[in-house]
Each structure stands twice: as C-alpha cells, then as structure tokens.
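Re-running Ribosomal RNA-processing protein 7-domain-containing protein to confirm reproducibility after the cluster update. Everything else is unchanged from the original entry.
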Amino acid sequence: MPSTPSTIGDFAILPLSIPPLPAFPQHAIHYLYVRRNAPKMPTATDARSLFLTNVPVDSTESHLRAVFTTLVGAGRFEGATFEDERKDAYSQGAQSPIDAAQPAHAAKLLQAHGKKRKREDEAAAERAREEEAARLPSTWTRPLRRSGSTAVVLLADEKSVEQVLKAIAKTHKTKKYPAWGGGSGSGGLKIPPLGSVWLKTHNRLSYPDSATLQASVDAFSTLFARREQEAAEIAKRLRNEPDEDGFVTVTRGGRSAPASRNEAEEAKRKMLAKQEKKKEELTNFYRFQLRERKKEEQAELLRRFDDDRKKLEAMRVKRGKFVPEA
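Result of re-run:
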C-alpha cells in the first residue's frame, strides 16, 4: 500500500485516526488539509491562523481543540470559526415560525406605518420570551457541517503555527495520528460524543413530549393573536388618514389604512416608467413607419426623375429629325 504524502500543494496533510464504532467496527483514517491562512481580505490575525479544509461533518471547536492539543500541547489553541456558523436554520430561504406568526396584512401595515412604537425594557423582554417560547425545540445538539467544509483555527502566536506544521510532518514519520472524538482529549478535555450516541440523542429530540409541543403551539397561537390585534389597532388609527393625494382607499369591509408616502412614490414611479416605456415603443413604431414612408417617397422621386429623363431624351431625338417647311 503506498504511503500517504505529507503535503499536496500548499496544504499539509493531517491524518486523523477514527476509532472503531459498533456500527462500523473497523479503524479508519480521515485526512484533514491544513495550510497557513491567506484570505483575499487580509486581517490582523492571519499570521497566527491556519486554514483547514475537508473538515469532518461532526466537527466542533472542542474536537479541533483536542486534535491541536495532541499535536502541540495545551495553551496554543484559541478558537475555531466554521464556514457555516453564521448561517442559522432559516438562511436557506425558509420562513421562520416567528415570521409566520406575522399576519399578512399586519406585516403590510407595519411596513407602511414605518415607525415602530417605543417599548419599555420590560415589554421588550416579555416579547423576546414569548418568541422564544413559540419556537420548537432543536433536534440537534450541535450543527452538522457540510461535507468537505472549511474552518479557520486561531492559535496563540506565529510560533504556534510553525509548531503545528512541524508536528503534522512528524506524524507521517511516527504514524501516530491524533484520534478524532471519543471520550476525553488531552488534559481531560471533554469532547462531545460522536457516532451512535449523538444520533440517538437526535432521534430522542426529534420526538418532543406532548407537554413541550403543546406549550410551543400555545405560545405561537398567543403571539399570532397578539399581532393580529396590533394590526387591527393600527388599521383603526389610520383608517381616516388620507394618503399624499388626499384620498382614502375604501375596500370591502370598510376603509383600510392608506399607503405610506414611500409606497405611493414607488407606485407613481413605476406607473411613470411604464408610461414612458409604452410611449417609447409607440414612438419607435411610428419612426419605423416614417422611415419606410421616406424610402417609398424617395423611390417614387427617382422613378419620376427617370421617366422625365427618358421623355426629355425622346424629345431631343424627335427635335433632331424635325425639318421645318420652306
């Protein structure tokens, strides 16, 4: 079996030893690729940072801390930033349950009104508690990384970066690879469990008890009803206020809140743009007709000129043969 290369391009290859599990009772190796951090937008900490790719899907900062502690000892690892940490559960375009509790007309009225009412600190805290209670409990104890994702590890200083790269090169000679997950790391560092323990926890959290589920549904319904009431109050207050043109829109069921100045200006701008586009299309159409008409007139003038030229030529020929009587 050919030996594993120690480097590939700018990356140093760090083999991670994955211990056997009951579901897969065989020893496995996962390859982590490490190089100095050199982002397109430099930062002050680049000199003491490392860029990692092919990060395991179950990675956490604790797991990376244990690996680097095994390589260079404790006190060198400061933190890790994963590429998907800034993305929450609704960053892929899904609607948050709290946003879904916002009635459609309430959202429109609040947006049109433009100004949020000032709330006291206690009221804001109460609202935050209500929104938190309306959320369903998470089914994962930690996020699952994308396959082949990246991370940036921040170390204590530049010297630590050199030591880590040298330690990685040394592992290829000694064949003593850092262990990934399982139990405690160096120095008694607690590491979140992997494998079946983690998945069993996820399976248990996927089926919350009826009391927890009922409490979340009740909180969601209360929040929705409260926002419905707020929307009705805003509509009632703005019912008799005219828009910028002095009109009050009347709809089925009574008058509705007028559009805000921004909405009216945006609608007016779109209407003018549509009219201008239509006018331009008509103008271009008439210009096309005008060009065709001019071409036809020019062709007619040329034809008439040619006929007159032929007639003149014929008259000249006829005059040359004319002999007046004596």
